[in-house]
Amino acid sequence: MPPLPIVERLAAARERLPDLKKRLAACRLCPRECESRRLKYEFGDCGLGPELRVMSSHLHPGEEPPISGNRGSGTVFFSGCNLACLFCQNYDISHEQHGQVTTPGELAGRMLQLQELGAHNINLVTPTPQIARIVEALADAWENGLTIPIVYNCGGYESVETLRLLDGLIDVYMPDLKYGRDELGVVSGVEDYTTRATAALKEMWRQVGPLVLDGEGIARKGLLVRHLVLPNGKAGTGEVLRWLAAELAPEVFISLMSQYHPMYRADEVEGLNRRLTSEEYGEAVALMEQLGLENGWVQQNPGG
Known about the structure:
By secondary structure, the protein is of the alpha/beta class. It has one domain (6-298): Aldolase class I (TIM Barrel), CATH 3.20.20. The protein has helices at 6-25, 65-68, 91-94, 104-116, 131-143, 160-164, 193-208, 237-247, 278-290, and strands at residues 52-60, 73-78, 100-102, 122-125, 150-154, 172-175, 212-213, 219-228, 253-257, 296-298. Strands 1, 2, 3, 4, 5, 6, 7, 8, 9 and 10 form a 10-stranded mixed sheet that branches. Strand 9, helix 9 (278-290) and strand 10 form a beta-alpha-beta unit. Helix 1 runs antiparallel to helix 5 and helix 4 crosses helix 5 (131-143). It is globular, with a radius of gyration of 18 Å. The protein starts with 5 loop residues before the first helix and ends in a 6-residue tail after the last strand.
């Protein structure tokens, strides 16, 4: 279904919250399905317990043009992550769970404040492990006047069952598609990344379809896929682009990113201990063009 009108999505959120909290209680929110009893303070593979933990919220000018626009994206960075990328640039937030315990009501207040500041959207960054509490906050915010689009900004390693509970609640899905083959995902701590992520992207596409922009070029609904090109073919970029062209149609919007540089524990992995070269990124851009993937963005400065 398309994103629902506010009154209907508020009702849908309240109706689905019990199911989301049930998935949280013996945690099955993501494909890890660790079944940790998080409501009883048994911490999940993501490092999180029952509380909502937020690192920061602010207007962010640095996302893709239809997300940040000219006023900024109302970005909320959540602590924790269901992946364990050895090259994570936000490892202090994702691996070390830095951030403040926040109630759903407080988060709703932050969202409304971001809307008052002129944000084009509410951009939920790494929401997956905390989505039950986030939907609780969204319901509060919608009830109190939140009207701007909701962006689900994730690593792509998603549970289709959880995503189905978000159908009609999310306006824009902005997942990564990190790897073109499952075996490449071991540097993110999982062995089934591609299988899970491609199934998740198909579900997102079913829900919202291709990106729809308003008269100012701002995303109102749809799917925007990010892919970070890694050195030495470590992302399987060719497989990623070919899958997108074949399965999600050439009109899918892609952000092909070149900014990889070794962070966190990347120096421990042979092939990831250097920056991307211009030649490597150029090959990815050329393949994107060859496949007819004309919607989206490329960058100019590999490793920058």
